[in-house]
Amino acid sequence: MNFLKTAASAALIASMAASVAVAGGHATTKLRMQTHFSPEQLSGEMAAKFIDDIELMSNGEIAVEMFYSSSVVKSVETFDAAATGILDCDMTGGGYQTGKNPAFQFAGDLLGGYQNPYQQMAWMLHGGGRAALNELYNGYDMEFVGWWIPGPESLVSTKPIRTAADFKDWKFRSPPGLATKVFAALGASPIVMDFTEIFTALETGIIDGADAANLTNNVGLGLYDIGEHTNYPGFHSMPADHLACNKAVWDAMPAHHQKIIEVAMESLALQNATKNEVMNAQTAKDLRAKGINLYEWAPEDLAKYRAAVQIGWTEFATTPEAKALLASHISFLKDLGAMK
Q1: Which of 44, 201, 203, 312 is paired with 19 by a 20 to 30 Å CA distance?
Q2: What tens digit of pLDDT does each residue of 239-269 get?
Q3: Any idea which fold 154-238+292-336 has?
Q4: 3-state secondary structure of 192
């Protein structure tokens, strides 16, 4: 049964809705958010710092209750839970919503289109990306607030992943969306599953590997306790985690509360990208010392992957919204000189 139709969900809607009130002459905003990250992961720690920042900058006028590890609803259901009032804000990522509209793929991850988080953030901040994303999000009763991008991810595997040829018959956890098509075209067998199910699936042999996160967050998930093979530097994926809020809740906030949250997200984005860059370099050293195999792909194998991605882009962009977002990204990448 759909989770929105249960009595428990009805109670959640009543108890978890955001409130915007005036106390002592000051507006107060109370928000309930969910993230797929655990408190122990670097990204979970940074989400906690983001909350501390907005509560401090607002002098306590904004209060946030964060639900970690997708503890209220599944990761893929977080967006709907916020849109319908079960939660107020979604701190997962747009890529989980490709089943609604393939445009959400281009609201989260171009699978190697951008080389680093700073290029992708530049599109959002300076290339018209924020407005373009809200054209999509507003159609689903949500407001896109901002991105935080850890950087290129690294695959985890119980088998070597030295070249594109090693993907043949490789069973791995994949997020929904374009990644399933790209990897299948390279001979892999993608299995879509929730972020919280990866460890058990890898431990029990249901999958040979996983597209989960970057080196540091993979360590936080315990994945290298099982998979002794990975790739670094990453190249296949650089998903943007978003903050998106129920549009009615967002619109009801005082303007200075909105601005505090937007600025805190920009701070989180910078802290996240730079800290992950430092941490991943150290994590790579630590993993090598522990005997984990780190593979750096040769240019010819990277070219095979990127060729499959660009074919996948056009095949996946099947709606007007998806075509518009993809065209915007490509135009910006060409202007940067990052794509011919």
Answers
A1: 44
A2: 999 999 999 999 999 999 999 999 999 999 9
A3: D-Maltodextrin-Binding Protein; domain 2 (3.40.190)
A4: strand
